[in-house]
Amino acid sequence: AALTLLQISYLTPNQISYLTPTQLPIIAVSQISILTSLQIQGLTSLQISYLTPSQIQGLTSSQIYALKPSQIQGLTPIQISAITPIQPVSFTPDITAMTYSYLITLASLNQVQIAALTPKQIAALVTNKLSINTLVNGSNSVSLFNSTQMTAFTPDQIVAFKPNQIAAFKPTQIAALTTSQIAALTGDQIITLTTLQISALITTQMAA
User: Fold this and answer.
1) Which end of the chain, N or C, is more open, meaning fewer C-beta atoms within 10 Å of its C-beta?
2) For residue 152, what are the CA distances in angstroms to 96, 145, 187?
3) Is the entire prediction scored with pTM above 0.70?
4) Three-state SS letters, 164-185
5) How far apart are CA 203 and CA 60, in angstroms?
6) Phi/psi at 92 (nearest 5 deg)?
7) How far is CA 131 from CA 45, 93, 94, 99, 114, in A?
8) DSSP for 11-55?
9) Distance from CA of residue 164 to its chain's centroid?
10) 4-25, pLDDT tens digit by residue?
11) How far apart are CA 141 and CA 205, in angstroms?
């Protein structure tokens, strides 16, 4: 018989880590959503990969915020695509409108996961600087992508970036773009490029 909501709530993080690949997918979304941050962190990266897209969508903002980088690495491309683009969270009065974006833009996603991001998810990435108490410690989320991650974006994803997001990229990130990615930039995106970003473009990129 399936565990009840009350029984699920009593599982320790250690017990959570023993749930099997056959047990995890049948846990109801309503049961997933009541797990505490510590219980969520009890899941291994392998266990995370067994969660269904519906279960991933059922995670609350605080649960997503609690995911460790190693757990994020366990997400499959299908799970990445299932994450709701914007999930507001208010942790303190001065930190509002937190979104899942702060998590997925950490240097945790591999190239396959990056390629699975939907245009709506990309549009949800933020460029503003935040309180040092936030997960990204004051950095803007789009600047967290490393060079390897940058090359994973498809032309369609590049187009999905807002002009102010493009302007927030570091010169080193711009320099990592491929010719096909540069060619995909729209006029509105190009005019936002800063002098430093333009300087970062190598000769082959400029030819795009």
Assistant:
1) N
2) 30, 10, 22
3) no
4) HHHHHCCHHHHHHCCHHHHHHC
5) 46
6) -145, 165
7) 29, 11, 8, 14, 26
8) --HHHHTT--TTTGGGS-HHHHTT--HHHHHTS-HHHHHTS-HHH
9) 19
10) 878 888 899 999 999 988 888 8
11) 24
